[in-house]
Each structure stands twice: as C-alpha cells, then as structure tokens.
Design a protein that fits this description.
The chain is an alpha+beta fold and 152 residues long. It has four helices and eight strands; from the N terminus they run E-H-E-E-E-E-H-E-E-H-H-E. It has one domain: Pnp Oxidase, Chain A (Roll). Strands 1, 2, 3, 4, 5, 6, 7 and 8 form an eight-stranded antiparallel beta sheet that branches.
Length: 152
C-alpha cells in the first residue's frame, strides 16, 4: 500500500480545528523556539485556551506571534496535520475583557479535563492575593494543512 499526500483547504482546516481539543503551541523569544502541549477550544477564528504563569505565558507576552499544530491519526491509516499561524491575545481579569473570558471558559469547560495542562505545574506556586489563571486566545492569521491516506 502507498500513501497519497494532499493539501487540506482552509475550510477543512477550520473543521478539523473545531473538532480538536489538543495541540502543540509554539512560541519564540530572543530567537529561541519553545513548544508546549495545550488543550484548546476553537471558535470563530480563535483558539481559546488557559494557562498559569510560566515560560509559555512569559514568551507569548514578549512575542505575540505563535503557531498551533494539531494532528490526527486516521482510522485505517493516514493522518492530517493543521498549522495555525496566529497572534496571542490575553484576556485579563477586568471588566473590559469579561465577555471574552466568559466565552473562553464556556467553550473550554465543555470538557471535564480542560484545565489540566494549563494549571498543572511541576512545583508549588506561591500563594497570591488574586487568581493567577490566564485565559487567552490565538487569533488565526493563516491556516494550512496536509493529509495522507492509504491507497490500495
């Protein structure tokens, strides 16, 4: 059996993103790339997610250009891969961003473990007077994809 590679059009890419909830987010600071696993919910051209203070958030604040990669293994063989180029946008806990934060939370909380990757840290965080939780979005600036399927 051989594999056939094809480009995935933007509409198909958006369809894949709307069904996906796990991906890898890449960011870059001072010429050094960094990649992290995230849970997200995709709606209206934005991938919504949640995190706590740390390297990923610091780097996205320093350079808002990011990429999100989502891949799928297909039943019977083959795969799809979608790459989103976008811009990080933080939704601070303020009245100005209240609706965007609630929208992000409403999409994410549809899954029981939506908070795990974003809130788990390998060490204890210091006690703070306010919540360190950060909701954010990756606004799509471009999307591309490829897929491979087995041919008989």
């Amino acid at each position: 059996m051989t594999m056939t590679l094809r480009e995935i059009n933007p509409a198909e890419c958006y369809g894949i993103l709307e069904k996906a909830r796990f991906g890898h987010l890449a960011c870059c600071k001072d010429g050094q790339p960094y990649i992290a696993a995230i849970y997200f919910a995709f709606s209206g051209g934005t991938a919504y997610s949640f995190t706590m203070p740390g390297k990923k958030l610091d780097w996205m604040r320093a350079n808002d250009k990011v990429c999100l990669h989502v891949d799928q293994r297909l039943v019977g063989g083959g795969w799809t891969s979608v790459v989103v180029e976008g811009r990080f946008e933080e939704f601070p806990d303020s009245e100005t961003w209240r609706n965007e934060r609630l929208h992000a939370w409403s999409l994410l909380q549809a899954h029981t473990d939506w908070w795990e990757i974003g809130s788990m840290k390998p060490h204890e965080l210091p006690m703070l007077t306010e919540s360190p939780h950060v909701f954010y979005g990756i606004a799509v600036t471009s999307v591309s994809g490829r897929g491979a399927a087995k041919m008989d």
